[in-house]
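Q: For a teaching session next week I want to show students how multiple molecules come together into a single three-dimensional assembly. I've collected the sequence lines for a complex. Could you give me the predicted structure tokens for the whole thing so I can convert them for display?
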Amino acid sequence: MYNFEFEKPSTIADAVAALQGDEAQALGGGQTLLPTMKQRLASPATLVSLSGISEIKGICTGDDGALCIGGATTHAEVAAGAGAYPALADTAAHIGDPAVRNRGTIGGSLANNDPSACYPAAALGSGATIVTNARSIAADDYFQGMFDTALDEGEIITEVRFPVPEKANYQKFVQPASRFALVGVFVAKYADGVRVAVTGASENGVFRWTEAEAALSANFDASAVPDAPAADGMIADLHGSSAYRAHLIKVLTARAVEAAA
Amino acid sequence: MPNVSMTVNGKAASGEVEGRTLLVGFLRDQLGLTGTHVGCDTSQCGACVVHVDGKAVKACTMLAAEADGADVKTIEGMAAPDGTLSTIQQAFQDHHGLQCGFCTPGMVMSAAALLAENASPSEQEIREYLEGNICRCTGYHNIVKAIMAAAGHDVSAIAAE
Ligand SMILES: Cc1cc2nc3c(=O)[nH]c(=O)nc-3n(C[C@H](O)[C@H](O)[C@H](O)COP(=O)(O)OP(=O)(O)OC[C@H]3O[C@@H](n4cnc5c(N)ncnc54)[C@H](O)[C@@H]3O)c2cc1C
Ligand code: FES
Ligand code: FES
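A: Of course. Below is the structure for the complete assembly, covering every listed component.
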């Protein structure tokens, strides 16, 4: 890893100011960024740690009933503290391993938008709002392809707001070596319809499976899950072909509906 | 260069570090606490697990600067000052929970974190908690057995496979 300056501000304003610096980058839990820097795939001149900003840590319930999670809240804290949204707590509880969950943060995961990560599916599947130091971004506008998001340079995720569904479930088919999702499907049933978000499968990153959403909004039953989506554009690697991943989407969606119902 | 101060195994420790100094590097190279191992340096194996403010973390994937002010515990802090092994360490010895011993510091620290959270874990819970700890020797069986024994479960009926 190349050397860098380390800063640890204690307010959002100071962090935003520090991130204006040349080649400055935010550091969440470091569970993705530090391995990336060791491989010299990233070499920021300054790392601005967000771990000292208490106003972006923790979980609360908003006036509209949404569950609000600070951007620097760790996976372990969400697993333990998001009891108001059990499927979300369960998603966090199965990210990586305990040591990763003790450091990794929701803001870091959503900023990174790994195509096989779990939180992007939860956020898109819940129609969450990603709140930054500058604005609020609907999940539908936020995810813009593999490792790509609507965030601007130096923008910090301060909070993520999850509307709490009537029922929800996340099914993760674990890739046992990386512990990421080979394919993961997040299903959430709201009063105004069902959302289905798929991670690990598409070459464009997390996406909504709209055919399944329409079918499940009409009939929330595993038997209503449509045929597997086309394999075009699905990831193919040594762990699974694109056809295999497409098949898993259908199977995991049905399992998620069964588990949620 | 930042100066960091922390409590390590109950004693104050401080030193100058670079931004990029990892916690595991600070512990091993600057404090001489070489019990914490580096197996992979890629956040996969868990040989480097230590406790920071009571929580298990991979010391190869945390900056020393991030541990400034923290309470850190390493494998060197597990036995009593007179060398008497902790319950978990003794159970690893009694149940042959190690062969080469390279993964053992991380295994013991993860096990200690688990038992602090859940005093009586099931075999399944132990196996899940150890997902981030890789052992190339034992096949895990006796590690799980040792942790079950340390948690007070009767393991006499579990075969040494
Ligand atoms: C062994 C292992 C297993 C894993 N398994 C899984 C898994 O099963 N599922 C899964 O989803 N993930 C998994 N991960 C990834 C893990 O969840 C990371 O914690 C997460 O991807 C990144 O979060 P972080 O807080 O560590 O961010 P960092 O690594 O610190 O940062 C990642 C990126 O986000 C930026 N960033 C960080 N915080 C913010 C913020 N608040 N606002 C804006 N930008 C920010 C950084 O600048 C950087 O670009 C795994 C990681 C490891 C090492
Ligand atoms: S050395 Fe830290 S996880 Fe392997
Ligand atoms: S005892 Fe050798 S790696 Fe575990």
